[in-house]
Amino acid sequence: MILTQYITLYNLNKYILVKVHYTIAKRRHMRHVLLLIVMLIFTLSAKPLASLEHAKIYKEQNVSGWVMSEKLDGIRGYWNGKEMQTKSGKKLFTPEGFTKNFPSFALDGELWSRHRDFEAIQSKVLQHNGRWEGISYNIFEVPHAKGDFYSRIKKATQWFYEHPNPNVHIISQYLCQNRQHLDHYLEQVTANGGEGVMVKEPHLNYTSGRTSTLLKVKKMHDMEGRVVAVNAPLRSGRMKSLTLELTNGIRFKLGNGFSDGQRLNPPTVGSLVTFKYYGFTKNSKPKFASFMRCRIE
């Protein structure tokens, strides 16, 4: 039996109408619905995050004279001068001593351990009482500081030179000479297990929001989508595909990249999943999309 339930959540004198579709076959499906409701309430009540800089996708623009660095595949951590937050504003419960000697000014960086370790990083960092073994904070920006990028990153470098913290690293930046230099660096990064490269125009003041002066360079791209339906043949007990909704409202079915275990126990409606893709169709749907992982909010 298919049920449709409408839940109205009130937050800051506004309401959001959430439409939840779920199939009731066993009691455990009710638990999934309750978990979804809790997750939605938590998301709505999260403290707003200061506007950060977000990258656009590299499309062979001329980036000669820009700086390039490895894009680490971890959890983005925003230090607001008092506490660490995720990019969506959720407070991170850092272990005692992890932020020792941190400054009163803002920092932006990646909480990371090693290549191909995202699930373990996410599990450690998003726990309330996690120990964060092997996790480091890798700084790539000083939001809202005065001056160009060189001046801003120098501010963080100088601070931690005078106030050391073994958990902190400043991400190395390299001057990009031309497109061939960028391609060669990307090959080096991916050969070592890295995800991709970030390139940045270093001579400008800090820019909030999505900007064309910060670009993400990858051999393939990734994106996140919200699960709005789990598609399975009748009585099969095995998921065939997920229907995802993107931030622009586009919906499509994601059916590749899942393990047998994930098909038997798929992500639930309301979950946020990351998938890789190679461009878009004429209907603005991701091409050759393949599941990568679930992202915990």
Shape: globular
Quaternary class? single chain
Uncertain segments:
1-28, 31-48
Estimated share of beta-strand residues? 25-35%
Count, helices:
5
What value does the average pLDDT take? 84
Tell me the number of structural domains. Answer: 3
Q: What CATH architecture of the largest domain do you see?
A: 2-Layer Sandwich
The SSE order reads: EEHEEEEEEHEHEEHEEEEEHEE
Strand order of the largest sheet: 7-6-5-8-9-10
Class by alpha and beta content: alpha+beta
CATH topology of the largest domain: D-amino Acid Aminotransferase, Chain A, domain 1
User: Span between N and C termini?
Assistant: 30 Å
DSSP, total strands: 18
- Percent of residues in helices comes to 10-25%
What gyration radius follows from the Cα positions, in whole Å? Answer: 21 Å
Describe the protein.
This protein is of the alpha+beta class and 297 residues long. It has 3 domains: 1-45, no CATH class; 53-217, 2-Layer Sandwich (D-amino Acid Aminotransferase, Chain A, domain 1), CATH 3.30.470; 220-297, Nucleic acid-binding proteins (OB fold (Dihydrolipoamide Acetyltransferase, E2P)), CATH 2.40.50.140. It is built from 5 helices and 18 strands. The strands form 4 sheets. It has a 6-stranded mixed β-sheet with strand order 7-6-5-8-9-10. Strands 3-13-12-4-11 form a 5-stranded mixed β-sheet. A 5-stranded antiparallel β-sheet has the order 16-15-14-17-18, with no helix packed on it. Strand 9 (136-141), helix 3 and strand 10 (168-170) form a beta-alpha-beta unit. The chain is globular, with a radius of gyration of 21 Å. Mean pLDDT is 84; it is low at 1-28 and 31-48.
